[in-house]
Amino acid sequence: MNITRENTDELNAVVKVQIEKEDYQPKVDKILKDYRRTANIPGFRKGHVPIGLVKKQYGKAVLVDEVNKLLQESLNNYLNEEKLEVLGNPLPKEQKDFDWDKEDYNFEFELGLAPKFEVSVDTKKTITHYNIVADEEMIDNQLKTIQKQYGKLVSKEEVEEGDLIAGTFVNEEEEIENTTTLEVNDIKGKRNLGKFLGAKKGDELKLKTKNLFETNEKLAEYLGVEQDKAEDLDIELSFTISEVNKQEPAELNQELFDKLFGEGKVTSEEELRKRIKEDAENQFQQQSDQQLLNDVTETLIEETSFELPKEFLQKWIQVSSEKEMSAEEAKDEYENSEKGLRFQLIESKLIQENDLQVQLEEIKEMTKDRIKMQMAQFGQLNPDEKELDDIAARVLSNQEEVKKLSEQVMNQKLLDFYKEKANLEIKEITYENFVKEVYK
C-alpha cells in the first residue's frame, strides 16, 4: 500500500491511496473460508461447499467490503500520523474507468485543510463587560411583589382600583360562559374602568370585548377562549360579579422574613433589601456573562482574519447532506454556517494554545453543585456527601450528559480566561439600561 499527498494550495490537498492485491487478499481469503464452513447452499453438505462456488457467489461483495474497510482505516491512520487538521471529511474523487475486476486499485480523496492563523484575546476593540446592579427602584418593586404574593385577601362590597373581582363572562351566541378572577388594573380605558368602579357583588355589567383588556392574551385568558379567537373578537357580553376582594400587602416583619429565608436568616427590612439585591445581581451575572461571551465571540471573528477552503466545504455540505441538496442550496448553507465554523476554529486554537483542558473531577464537581441546587429547592440544604457522590455517579453514567457537562465546564474556563486576558472595560449599569443598550 502506498499513500501520497499533493497540496494544491494552502487550504486544499489531494491524497492518493494505492492498494495492491497483497494488501487485501489474505483477509478476503479468510472470510471466504469462513463462509464455506457456514454457508447453506442447496445440494451441498454444510462445510463441503466448493471454494470456487463460494468465491463465485460471495467473492466480489467480500472484496469490495474489505477494500473499503482497508481504505478508510489506512486513510484515517495517515491523517493522524501526518497530524493533518482537516475540515469536514475527505471526499472521494469520481473515477469513471474504475474496475473492481482489476487486482490493484487507486483512489483519490480531496481534503479541505484547516487554515493557519494567529489569534489573541487582547483585541484592538475594547469589549464592554457589564456589571449589572439592582438599583433602589428595582428593590422597591421586588419588595412590593413579595408583599403582594404573601399578602391576604379581604372581602368587600364595592369595587375600587387595585381590587380582585371574581365573576362570570357570558355570551350565548359564541358559547362563552367562563368564571374567572380578574384584576381591575388589567381593564383598559376610562369608559370600561368606569363600569367596574363602584359596582357591587351581584351586579351584571354589559361590556364589549374590543379594547376591554390591555392585551389579547388577557382577553383569551379571562374569557376562556383560544388565542386566535380572541384576536378578532368584537362582541357584547355580560359580566356578573360574584366576589370583590382587596389584596392587603404582607407586613415586613419577622414572620415574613422567616417564610422567605428560613428562621432567623434575615431579621430586618434592611437585611431583606440587601438579600434581594444580592439575589438579583447573582441572576444578572448569568446574563452579563452570556453577553460577554457573545461580544468576545463577535470581536474575535471580526479581528481574526483567515481564508477557508470555501469550494471544498460547499461540496462537502452538499455530499454529506441527509437530503438531496443542490449546489446553490449548499452555497447558502455554507454562508449561513461560515461564522460558526470560523469561531469553532478560533476557540479550538485558544483552548489548545492555553491548555484549557477539562478534567473528570471538574465535571464531577459541577454535577454535584447542580444536584445541591436542585435539592435545596426542596428544602434539603445539607445533603450527605455519599448521597451526592451516588447521584453524581448515576448522572455521569450517561455519556450524553457527560458531553453536555464537559461543554459547560469548558465554557466556564473560556469565560474565566476572557475575563482575565481580554481587552475589557467594566461598565456598571442598571438592569433596565442593560436591556435598553444590549437589546435595543
Topology overview:
Elements: E1 2-7, E2 12-19, H1 21-38, H2 51-81, E3 86-92, E4 105-113, E5 127-133, H3 136-149, E6 152-156, E7 164-171, E8 176-183, H4 190-196, E9 204-208, H5 216-223, H6 227-231, E10 236-248, H7 254-261, H8 269-303, H9 310-320, H10 327-353, H11 360-377, H12 385-395, H13 399-421, E11 424-430, H14 431-438
Parallel strand pairs: 5-11
Antiparallel strand pairs: 1-2, 2-4, 3-4, 6-10, 7-8, 7-10, 9-10
Helix pairs in contact: 1-2, 9-10, 11-12, 11-13
What does this protein look like?
GO terms for molecular function: peptidyl-prolyl cis-trans isomerase activity; protein folding chaperone; ribosome binding. This is Trigger factor. Keywords: Isomerase. It holds the Pfam family Trigger_N. This protein has 440 residues and is of the alpha+beta class. It is 51% helix and 19% strand. Helix 1 (21-38) crosses helix 2, helix 11 crosses helix 12 (385-395) and helix 11 crosses helix 13. The radius of gyration is 35 Å and the shape is elongated.
In short:
By secondary structure, this protein is α+β, with helices and mostly antiparallel strands.
DSSP helical segment count:
14
Rg over CA atoms: 35 Å
CATH topology of the largest domain: Trigger factor, domain 2
**Share in β-strands:** 15-25%
Oligomer: single chain
Q: Structural class of the secondary elements? A: alpha+beta
> The biggest beta sheet, please?
5 strands, antiparallel
**Any idea what the CATH architecture of the largest domain is?**
Orthogonal Bundle
CATH level-1 class of the largest domain: Mainly Alpha
Residues in helices, as a percent range: 40-55%
The overall number of domains is 3
User: Helix and strand succession?
Assistant: EEHHEEEHEEEHEHHEHHHHHHHEH
Alpha-carbon distance between the termini?
A: 62 Å
What is the number of beta strands? 11
Q: Low-confidence parts, pLDDT < 50 over ≥5 residues?
A: none
| Whole-number mean pLDDT | 92
Shape: elongated
